[in-house]
Design brief:
This is tRNA-uridine aminocarboxypropyltransferase. Pfam families: DTW. Its EC number is 2.5.1.25. By secondary structure, this protein is an alpha/beta fold. It contains seven helices and six strands, in the order E-H-H-E-H-E-E-E-H-E-H-H-H. A six-stranded parallel β-sheet has the order 2-1-5-3-6-4.
């Protein structure tokens, strides 16, 4: 499903936020260090904190496909010479630990909860034939409205930003996080500081 088909009345056609809280002025336009294909579970497309869409809008060379099963995925992967799958596992190599000869020309990123991301892998077996990459340990996620089971778990946007930074350390991809941080602040304000601190006592 094409990402452009997700617009709803009363909302910005790009960032999908209510028009009064449009995030587009905060979204940069950066060249990707490597083309990215995000495979987004449909439930994430409707989520208020849709970080994959922020990556799609702010990073040139990014594709956003929405669904569980993708008939055209095999043909898309065949267009790449060295596609990789960003997904942890015992067989995964740590991003940045490989030589330049193994630099990918397409990074596939499943977007959803762990259960739904695994469902995407199950429904699209061709993904399981790709080399797996995982992120090295890093700082805690800025996603302060999520209780992640793993302290190293990050949002899709954060994962992509970290990966771009690893691939091209001389560039600064942090501007991609600006609309994400604004979105978090808006959500905290909407729920109220007391409610936020009561439900997320360890967040900063």
């Amino acid at each position: 499903m094409n990402a452009s088909l997700l617009s709803r009345p009363g909302r910005c056609a790009q960032c999908q936020r209510p028009l009064a809280r449009c995030l587009c002025p905060l979204i940069p336009s950066l060249e990707a260090a490597c083309p990215v294909l995000i495979l987004q579970h449909p439930s994430e497309a409707r989520h208020a904190l849709n970080t994959a869409r922020l990556a799609y809008l702010g990073l040139k060379g990014t594709e956003l496909w929405v669904g569980e099963q993708f008939e055209e995925l095999g043909a898309r992967l065949a267009q790449a010479h060295r596609p990789v799958l960003l997904f942890p596992g015992p067989q995964a190599k740590v991003a940045g630990s490989t030589g330049p000869e193994e630099k990918p020309d397409l990074i596939v990123v499943p977007d959803g909860t762990w259960r739904k991301a695994r469902l995407i892998l199950h429904r699209n077996p061709v993904l399981q034939t790709l080399p797996y990459w995982m992120l090295p340990d890093g700082e805690a996620s800025r996603y302060r409205l999520r209780k992640a089971p793993d302290p190293q778990a990050v949002s899709t946007l954060e994962a992509i930003v970290r990966l771009m930074q690893i691939m091209e350390p001389e560039r600064d991809f942090r501007p991609l996080l600006r609309p994400f941080e604004q979105l978090i602040e808006e959500q905290i304000q909407a729920m109220g500081l007391d409610t936020y601190q009561r439900n997320y006592p360890t967040s900063r």
